[in-house]
Amino acid sequence: MEIGSNFIKNIMKEDVETGKHDTVITRFPPEPNGYLHIGHAKSIFINFGLADEFGGKTNLRFDDTNPLKEDMEYVNSIKEDVEWLGYEWENLLFASDYFEEMYERAVLLIKKGLAYVDDLSADEIREYRGTLTEPGKESPYRTRSMEENLQLFEAMRNGEFGNGEKVLRAKIDMASPNINLRDPVIYRIAHATHHNTGDKWCIYPMYAFAHPLEDAIEGVTHSLCTTEFEDQRPLYDWVVRECEMESTPQQIEFGRLNITNTVMSKRKLKLLVDEKYVDGWDDPRMPTISGLRRKGVTPEAIRNFCMELGISKGSGAVDSAMLDHFVREDLKLKAPRTMGVLNPLKVVITNYPEGQVEMLDAENNPENPEMGVRQIPFSREIYIEQEDFMENPPKKYFRLFPGNEVRLKHAYFIKCEEVIKDEEGNVMELHCTYDKETKSGTGFTGRKVKGTLHWVEATQAIPAEFRLFEPLISDEEEEIEEGKTFLDYVNPNSLEVIQGFIEPNMKDVKPQDKFQFFRHGYFNVDPKYTTSEKPVFNRIVSLKSSFKL
Ligand code: ATP
Ligand code: MG
Ligand code: MG
């Protein structure tokens, strides 16, 4: 499927048709300071998807210019996630491999009188910068000679100054209406070990200087980023031009993905991990790619979701139910249907012969007959769900209650004859009778019942754990009250752990296998907590949704 017509594709088309570029080269440029989230998936989809439509190429480039926050753990997780989403990068690159070239380009700016070493502190620089309505003030160091700047910049590189003592700034225009052009800082001192370059450098380029150089060095034709960078575009173009780069990439902005009830910032996600609100970056409640994967969301669902989002400048929040919709669409024909009993209640079928076990046929997926039929055991003792029995039901309750008859999926009609309780009055088990004539698949039409229950045979049932999720954040981010942070809005009930049983033929399930449990929705076998004794199932989505595309 092709990405629908959009403004970025139109620019690319024109550039290829007019011969401005022979092909389209894009990049996905994550900073390795956290795990990727669903917002990054949109950027990956756009960068890889568009380049592919023009027969072009996409690089995976780590934008690793800040040694303080970056780590190889993040590099590895990002590679894994991009591959899992189904994309192949042309080159795997690190911005830090260009540090020497970036340094030389900065020296070129100094030689052209377009950069200077400033001794002002970070606070002073901020003060001097001015505001939207007030022009900035020039630093007293702005007029340093070219020779002095060259010598000081080299001394910065050689480690002769401490953190924050000096910076290198581009000399552009302190009165520009665009604050980004008021002599932005382009190099800072940071005595820190870098994950790739070790202790080779103690000065590091700032994003606004480094990013356009990275794109130009790689011959990127279209540098796609989110709309927050729109005001930085003049600086981006200035850097490419004044650093005399051969190749001239074009920055184009698109709208960031926001999703209702979803934290979409690595900084905040890291806080949830560090403060142990979740069990890691891959907690199934996290909107990270690894969290979605562990929950059971498929790459196909994520790609179809991105396709539906399309490409525009808008960034209004998308309903989280939309991703769920694409999960159901994807799993509908793929996931086998099965029966899992959550919160079990034992049922003894008193007129069924003791010691007898019969095998019943059960369709694996009525919507996809190719998935075939399995055999499930039935005997005198089964489990149903506590929720499917009420001693004193309200009107229109069609499940089991004393005297009522229901259908057991794939099996027989049973009727509740007796409720067995303990001394405190808790329901311990039910005694029922079955009617042999009502066997599923025999075409019995003698009488009708309104309720159908799922169940598992008790002696062979496999214990299992089911994990149900609610949004991690209970309120929308924008509504945070004064004096509170988003951590005050973490939903204390976002995880519900339930014990139960599954069918015996599921004894060999493997991590990441996906099933539809009758009435409960789609589940994934959790790769972290599943043991050979007990599988753990994460609910991916429930069955019902009011969401409409
Ligand atoms: P965060 O704010 O979550 O930390 P970031 O933008 O700092 O994200 P980067 O690693 O710099 O993270 O992002 C890599 C690419 O992904 C960038 O091009 C960025 O624009 C894009 N991106 C990040 N978040 C989103 C989002 N919510 N929607 C679309 N694209 C995004
Ligand atoms: Mg960033
Ligand atoms: Mg960020």
TrEMBL record:
Residues where L-glutamine binds: D63, Y207
CDD domains: GlnRS_core
Glutamyl/glutaminyl-tRNA synthetase class Ib catalytic domain location: 24-332
Catalysed reactions, as listed in the record: tRNA(Gln) + L-glutamine + ATP = L-glutaminyl-tRNA(Gln) + AMP + diphosphate
Keywords: Aminoacyl-tRNA synthetase, ATP-binding, Cytoplasm, Ligase, Nucleotide-binding, Protein biosynthesis
Predominant location category: cytoplasm
Residue ranges occupied by any Glutamyl/glutaminyl-tRNA synthetase class Ib anti-codon binding domain in the UniProt entry: 335-435
Entries under SUPFAM superfamilies matching the protein: Nucleotidylyl transferase (SSF52374), Ribosomal protein L25-like (SSF50715)
Short sequence motif 'HIGH' region: positions: 30-40
Residues reported to bind ATP: 31-33, 37-43, 226, 256-257, 264-266
Gene3D superfamilies: Glutamyl-trna Synthetase, Domain 2 (1.10.1160.10), Glutamyl-tRNA Synthetase, Domain 3 (3.90.800.10), HUPs (3.40.50.620), Ribosomal Protein L25, Chain P (2.40.240.10)
Entry EC no(s): 6.1.1.18
HAMAP family per UniProt: Gln_tRNA_synth
The protein, known as: Glutamine--tRNA ligase
Organism: Niallia hominis
Lineage start: Bacteria, Bacillati, Bacillota, Bacilli, Bacillales
